[in-house]
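Need a sequence for this fold. Nothing fancy.
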């Protein structure tokens, strides 16, 4: 297919034209599916810049943007993830339609940038309503467990903290607190500080965990004492049996 632009056209020139003409925006959205990698990447740059200027400019092309998440090149994928993140506050339903594709990007084997951008989309989505936060929390929690200690982990925690400032269900705050309780107490440096910031959203959970840990220790000690008493009783019975045999 022939396009009115080339990959050598200055991005700003293409963006300015697309702001004025919906037919240009439609053409860039269509170009996300072009056979040429360079054209797809160029179109993704234009779409992203449009979203940065005004997300509503690309809201009619949410399906094409979501479809582009499975392109083989990294740049197109992370550009479209960023465009979806920018769309999220005004059109969060785009995430509903692309949830599986975004989750695939969250576990992208080739690019930490793609993984982080996918995580950002989910946290932005989770911040919009309590119901969405509950839906997305298992996905977010699984990713945090998976990437703990990796380079993108602290940036992911930063995104989680931003989400917790949004319209998040209390159960999600409690889940995040449980997830970071160990790091808050045993971590060091930046990790510990970030974990402590997370658990501050549901401090009552920490108190509950402490009570549960104390109860578990008490039950463990009681079980050990009972086992020791049973062993002593069994030993005493054996001694009595030996005395009877000696007589």
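Here you go.
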């Amino acid at each position: 297919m022939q396009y009115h632009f080339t990959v050598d056209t200055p991005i700003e020139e293409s963006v300015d034209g697309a702001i004025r003409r919906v037919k240009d925006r439609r053409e860039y959205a269509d170009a996300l599916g072009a056979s040429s990698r360079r054209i797809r990447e160029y179109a993704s740059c234009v779409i992203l810049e449009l979203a940065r200027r005004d997300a509503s400019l690309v809201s009619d092309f949410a399906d094409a943007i979501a479809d582009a998440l499975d392109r083989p090149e990294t740049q197109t994928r992370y550009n479209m993830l960023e465009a979806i993140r920018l769309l999220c506050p005004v059109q969060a339903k785009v995430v509903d339609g692309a949830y599986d594709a975004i989750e695939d990007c969250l576990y992208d084997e080739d690019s930490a940038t793609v993984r982080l951008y996918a995580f950002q989309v989910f946290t932005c989505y989770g911040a919009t309503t309590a119901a969405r936060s509950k839906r997305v929390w298992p996905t977010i929690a699984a990713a945090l467990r998976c990437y703990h200690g990796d380079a993108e982990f602290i940036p992911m925690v930063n995104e989680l903290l931003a989400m917790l400032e949004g319209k998040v269900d209390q159960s999600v705050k409690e889940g995040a607190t449980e997830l970071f309780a160990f790091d808050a107490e045993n971590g060091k440096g930046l990790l510990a500080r970030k974990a402590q910031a997370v658990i501050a959203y549901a401090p009552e959970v920490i108190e509950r965990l402490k009570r549960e840990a104390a109860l578990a220790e008490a039950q463990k000690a009681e079980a050990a004492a009972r086992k020791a008493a049973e062993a002593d009783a069994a030993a005493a019975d054996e001694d009595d049996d030996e005395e009877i045999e000696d007589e």
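For context: The first helix runs from residue 11 to 20.
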